[in-house]
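User: Predict the full complex structure for these chains.
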Amino acid sequence: MIKYIIRRLLYLIPVLLGVSFIIFVLFNLVSGDPTAVLLGKNATAKQMAELREQLGLNKPLLDQYFDVVKSAFTFDFGRSWATKQEISQMIIQGAYPSMALTVPAFIISTVLSLIISLVVAFYRGKGIDLFVRFMCIAGVSVSALAYILFFQYFFAYQLGWFEISGFEFGFPDFVPFIALPAIIFILLSLGPDVRFFRTVILDEIYQDYVRTARAKGLSEVIILLKHVLRNALIPIITYVVIQIPSLILGALLLENFFSIPGLGGITLNALNSSDFPVIKAMAILSSVLYIILSLVTDVLYTFADPRVKLK
Amino acid sequence: MKGSVLILGILLTLVFGCSKQNNFTEREINLVSPEKISGFDPINASDKYSGNEAGKVYEGLFEFHPLKRPYELMPNLAASMPEVSKDGLTYTFKIRKGVLFHDSPAFTGGIGREMKADDVLYSYKRLADPKLSAKGWWVLDDRIVGLNEWREKYSQAEATDYNEAIEGLKKVDDYTFQMKLKKPYPQFLYALAMPYTFIVAKEAVEHFGKEFLNYPVGTGPFVLPKFDQSSMIVYTRNTKFREKFYPSEGEEGDDKLGLLADAGKKIPLVDKINVYIIVESQPKWLSFMKAKNDMIEIKDVNIQQTLTPENELRPEHKEKGMRLFMLPMLDVAYFAFNHENPIFKNVKLRQAMNLAYDRDGANKLFHENTAFIAQGPVPPGLAGHRKEFKNPYSKLDIEQAKKLLAEAGYPEGKGLPEITIQTRNETVARQQIEFFAKCMDKIGIKISVGMNTWPELVNKVTKKQHQMYTMAWGADYPDAENFLGLLYCPNQSPGSNGANYCNPEFDALYSQATILQDSPERTSMYEKLNEMVALDVPWIFGFNRTDIYLTQAWLKNYKVMEFNHNQFQYLNVDLEVKKQLSKKF
Amino acid sequence: MKENSLWKDAFKRLIKDKMALASLIVVIVYSLIAILASMGLIASDWAKEVGASNLPPSAEHWFGTDIFGRDVLAKVLHGTQIAMSVGLFTALIAIPIGVILGAVAGYFGGWVDDFITWLYTTFSSIPNIMLLISITMILGKGIFAVYIALGATSWVTLCRLIRGEVMKHKEREYVQAAGAIGGGHFRKLFLHILPNVTHIVIINTSLQFQFAIKSEVILSYLGLGVQGEPSWGTMIDDAKLELARGVWWQLAGATMAMFLVVLAFNLLGDALRDSLDPKLKGK
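Assistant: Here is the predicted structure of the three-chain assembly.
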């Protein structure tokens, strides 16, 4: 097991090399020269040349790539070009609001979807199954932008139930600010979640062991909760855990419209201002998380199903 | 589904109780910044919004009078206007005594010390420090004797030596210093009122190092111990602020508007300023309508929600006591041709395109008729703009346009390639070009839109990789030089002349005019420059827009100001009115 | 043939399922609109000014007019063409890459598998939105950039699914048998295994299709979408400024149009899974 974990962690190396390479190539191609933007509307050619030198943009490409790789392994991202802020500080600062929004919303939507899926799996093929599935899918068929525009106008402004925009640090101060975006988040994830969970649960329901259990006279509810759910856990865990890195990045649109100072906004700003160090940091951070979480998933398998052996 | 209803219910009850109430006891004002603030280092405060934030904490030697128009400089940290030598090159400044920096751990004992001449010289050198590549360097670039040499010398060195003497920046005593210019620079004092030249304390810069941008230590009316990059910035009154008083005179009529009610009172007049950062227009508008903010800058689509077709405040807003402020801005919005492209060397083509642009239509659609049609590069309100001058090409005349297009060698647009106009990736920018394309289609010219992030657009322009692009230039200071310079040949890309327009006759007159002090002679030269270039249509002249602000009834002493980073200390709030009106929201 | 009856069977069940049938019809209608629009037979005059600016819906203009006085219905129809083409081309790019890489990795294993696994792990560990934005930026925007960006990000899921499925099939008897009678790798993989994993491609495609349509809206909001012609994304983007002044019809038109087709693709995807997935077959 330990060996397996170490081997998987070592796998981070080639992946990070790949991520660094993709990010480096994409962004060096996109905006070869950020200096004009960084110096404002009255920049002179001379000043731009000086800044290029300072930012290390005149170094050979290989050296520049090496710098990216280095920061991927040391987590030393330096300072943002555009805001001159310390990137690690920006990330810590932005992670809180992002996660205040996404983590509760994610947990609620996952639990809710699981409950709904069990219910519809129980009533599979009946009217309620069709109706609930239809509603969940309908919910996710509306553009996020349309939800945001309408909900903000109606629930926050007209009815005054929620704050229109902004964020305050500390619980429960942030609750009125994140409640509405969280509801939109949940509406948007219910559809795909329920669809996936239901399929997984149905896959299990038709297995032989369920038939055996039924033959033994166990009630359908017990079978569902005890046997089916347990066996369905592996794909469910995979599905859930893999989504976590995207939670850290926040929900870009929601953050922008509800003025939540999170990582989504930071990323968007960085993309809009060719702020390479920040883009690099966000990409590297999320891929490290991705790898680590997929490792966590594998380890969780062994708990969910003792038959699984890690090699 | 039942589950979801249940949890939704729990969430809602949790939330109802804590939707926040407005504050009626604290003397605070609530403002909005439509752009993210990246930090508080004055030398990088290049846009209006970061300047506004820096201006609450920091101060410069001069400031614009909050009430008088046309804009008038008055001493702020300077004790008086400077003495200028006969040749106009040596300026002697006296600074105010007893000005204290904010308390900060950077100072010994944590107590802010007095600001002295050394601090001013240090702050100006810092703007030139090659290690900092300040956005504001251009205001002093090639202006001060010895400063460029100093910058040059340290650009390759490990560290910059601030102690080295510079001929053009000389301390006389603790409250007096001299600056020597290389050549006449009539806009010099304006530069010393801009956020770039705000005064900082050496101890703070050194103590906080690279984190200085998050710990503003100024001399200004408000204090912000730490900037934490959140969506809300809270300033509190600087209790040790010097004796500074609300002005007792202003423009004619200010008295009637109640703008002199606080005359002679010690400022700042409020205890707290909250600035909310709201980027999207819908939440910004809705927050104001819920009285969460005291003032909103009205842009684009919100104009229609604010004004009646007669450009008056809509009755539903009037009823809530809201007040409307409109003032023509010192700006010009235009479509620039890239004059390096041989197609656009053809003046008849440029004239034809100008004549085919339906500015009235665009004004109605995008500005609700609040903008003014630009007749040339210099906007109204500046010396150099003559009211009587009407540009013959700033009007709609399809027939004439078709004729000129044929004379240009492209009858009905035949032979002309499709022209791409580069712009920012914003909804309104896209719509404006779509509208322009419709206009050009009428004479047979095909236009397409190129959308760019800001860096991409700047790159295309500085590298001359564009056919046309859109731009709106706002004044850095109230002088036509700031606009005419956009067409001065030596300023071409990567400078501010993104059109790469070159006209030797214009250039010769420009270099003569811009070294003159403000005088009738200079004004007539500016007028000549403006009209000469207007007739040559180097751009498609668009609009001089209008600043529109809506304020709540309880916000006092507000007057639209183009260079407003010092304005907030003069604002006041009437809590009685706020309480009374709150029922209406 | 074995496959034949499976497909016929599946199709029969699909037809019986009323919701799936309705979805199929919606998708077909949208496709027809898209084809007719691309041939210039309908909504070709979307750019024409038909009335005053921002007219509310009326008998003459069902969805009202936009800021330039253009018919919103015509824009919605033209947007259908954009949306369907985004879905289609994304699929055309993603399917070959995903299927070939996935199949090769699953079949050959070893270093080939290692390499391809590494490739898709790398791609999937970078947040989608970053890849989307940077690719559209590099390619200079416009609809082709949208196709390629979405194609380049959506092959990953398919690749992973196909790889897993091919690995399973590789060990099955019929493949072993094909090997025994002298079939080469190519023959085994493409003639024997791939037809048995087609259902994954179909299900995945119907879901990717709607994802692509929704992504176009986000890209348009970021100013990276289709340029110079109306798409649902640019219409919803316009609406963000219009809604507060009471102009709701552009948002409503584009949202409704999108809602219907996305819903249809989702339901169809589910129905396809139910009828095609051998595991669920007959249950």
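Chain A has a mean pLDDT of 83.
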